[in-house]
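User: Predict S-acyltransferase's structure from this.
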Amino acid sequence: MLSAVSRPIRDSCAPVLDRCFRLVPCLADPARRSSLGLKAALVTLHLVFVGVIFLFDSELIEKTKHEPWYITFYLLLFVATLVQYFITSGSSPGYVLDAMRHANERNALFQKISTTSKQPASSKNGNMVITMEGSRPGRSFSGSNATSWTKLVLDLYPPGTSIRSLTCSYCNVEQPPRAKHCHDCDRCVLQFDHHCVWLGTCVGLVNHCRFWWFICEETALCLWTGVLYVAYLKANIALAWWKDVIMIVLLIILAISLIFLLLLLLFHSYLILTNQTTYELVRRRRIPYLRGIPERVYPFSDGVCRNLYKLCCVKASVYNLERLPTAQEIEEKCRPYTCLDFLTCRCCC
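Assistant:
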């Protein structure tokens, strides 16, 4: 009975939906519809929490006239947080396919130039640069011997590694160390951290720094908004009970969100300072190249300062592919700290 009634409704709505899908093609994809819905919900929540305090607190409006800088900075933080959110959600995490395509293009360009001229190819040609951190002499991609993507990936692993064990069964591409296939994006991501449903994209090599800044700004905005809520309740408690109920409920949600954001900010700060990812930390015992390494040893860490520099200061146009550390390097990282190590800042450099 219900299906017979709902069928004419679906038939009448079908032309409208088809017209919407033609105007906005991304709505035709259920996954992208869900992502857009979450983004719209997040923006709406921001507008509600900020709008309510301005709507209820008349003293805040008066304070704006006498101290305009206070609310100006708050609104600037609000706008900056939303802008950072859309920048992060719209940025690429660094896909393996993109790195492979640019590597092959640079390889073809190098071979073309080397056949027409004896001059070496400049490392600044093209839009992307592929760098191999800690690569052995004579094995660099931009060196005198141009290599393919397969050779480039094999150079990042110990000698004798089979290329079959490095090939993704979904994308059919060779994965560099720390890359993983994301089933939500259906792509392999360089230095995969996690897939964020609120962003609608993965967090990886390229956008991890942007993600950290978004969390930092979101935490500051949540804290400042909570301060405004508490100040309102202190000054206007018991004046209008329905306003108090709304403000208290929103304040509780803010407090829970603030605790979650603070923990998330501290967690990702720890990951950045030690050059780890969420996936590597959670699945450490299941990842082959981390299985035999002690838990307190960070194989890809080059010290706090260098880790920060690589994440925040290296251009987004550079794919920094890290090779697996050797047994000697792992043994050196396992060595306990001494007083001399602290004086020479071994943990920082």
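The longest strand covers residues 129-133.
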